[in-house]
Amino acid sequence: MDPFEDTLRRLRETFHAGHTRPAEFRAAQLRGLGRFLQDNKQLLYDALAQDLHKSAFESEVSEVAISQGEVTLALRNLRAWMKDEHVPKNLATQLDSAFIRKEPFGLVLIIAPWNYPLNLTLVPLVGALAAGNCVVLKPSEISKSIEKVLAEELPRYLDQLPRPGPHHNQKQFHRLRALLGCGRVASGARAMSANSLHAPTVLVDVQETEPVMQEEIFGPILPIVNVRGVDEAIEFINRREKPLALYAFSNSSQVVKRVLAQTSSGGFCGNDGFMHMTLASLPFGGVGASGIGRYHGKFSFDTFSHHRACLLRSPGMEKLNAIRYPPHSPRRLRVLLVAMEARGCSCTLL
Fold first, then answer.
1. Looking at the DSSP assignment, which residues form a beta bridge with residue 97?
2. Where are the extended beta strands (E) located within 20-84?
3. How far apart are CA 32 and CA 29, in angstroms?
4. Alpha helices (H) in the chain, listed in sequence order
5. Cβ-proximal residues to 300 (8 Å cutoff; 6+ apart), any chain
6. pLDDT digits (tens, 9 = 90+) for 107-127
7. What does the DSSP 8-state code read for residue 18?
8. 106 and 305 in contact (C-beta within 8 Å)?
9. Are the C-beta atoms of residues 324 and 93 closer than 8 Å to each other?
10. What is the pLDDT of residue 164?
């Protein structure tokens, strides 16, 4: 049997047996994830330095602390997130119990990119575990040092996790080098080798149709497109696919607010970049081509949960349903439509 098929079969059997559903099991997995971050902090710093040349400061702020904060938040709120969410009822359902139950999807796959290889692997993992799922975790094969740490160390802290695949750093190096052929290099150095630093590079005279303007760059390359004003900038943004994030920088708060009001993106920052990702109270995700779904904090739990619509009615109330059954009449229809109207306040039958 294919080893991957066997692993998937065992994971599905584990889920269907109900092992991942209890709050105690979910909390134990989250605590294990928190211990992994604490016990292996220096190892993670070293791996991030090898993969992305991140300093310990940047690694802590953008990767480790955010991941640890998500674990802490999920542990603090897990039982509240798991509770049935009771919803308002109309007159026809006043004697019933109406609620939303958060159920795990079952077996989920997390495929992480390489630009924030720890953060973008573990933050969705927190939500998937908190929601009670079994998880197949696929770290980025490009950030190979972080991939190695996750593959070798993380399984010791959690139930068993499907091992990563081969490395393709050379492919990404050649992709970035090809992008340097777009426009003209105004500042920065061209890449030297796949294992060396790539200086931040600014490209000018870039055409909208060139490859560097058609895909996520995931590298230290900044293409600049000149526009005649805010109107043209907004028009340029809106005729393209909606971005994952949009950052507007201006000394005028009105300009920033105008860009926010007249564009659409997964996230938005005015006079800053990235910092919206540090707030677990804000959802992170794209819109349209830039992504489907959202996560961080409770948003992660909700993304990895099926929100099941539930209505429970007592069998002794069947006589009240007679108004719905033939023979129909205009009066019965009017009464039923009134009873089905959404109401602005909670009603109680005395």
1. 312
2. none
3. 5
4. 3-16, 23-39, 41-52, 56-59, 65-82, 119-130, 144-153, 169-179, 230-238, 253-262, 298-303, 330-340
5. 70, 74, 123, 124, 126, 127, 128, 130, 131
6. 999 999 998 999 999 999 999
7. T
8. no
9. no
10. 41
pLDDT tens, residue by residue, 242-300: 999 999 999 999 999 999 999 999 999 999 988 888 888 888 888 988 888 888 989 99
Q: How many residues would you count in the chain?
A: 350
Q: Which two tokens stand for residue 66?
A: 């955010």
- Model pTM score: 0.77
Token output for 39: 């016990």
Q: Which positions ≥6 away from 251 have C-beta within 8 Å?
A: none
Two structure tokens written together for 204: 């000018």
Token duo for residue 268:
């938005």
Q: Which residue is listed with tokens 């409770």?
A: 298
Q: Which two tokens stand for residue 310?
A: 């539930």
Residue with tokens 């039982």: 79
CA gap 24, 37 in Å, rounded: 20
* Domains delineated in the chain: 3-167 (3.40.605.10), 176-295 (3.40.309.10)
Sign of CA dihedral 86, 91, 96, 98: negative
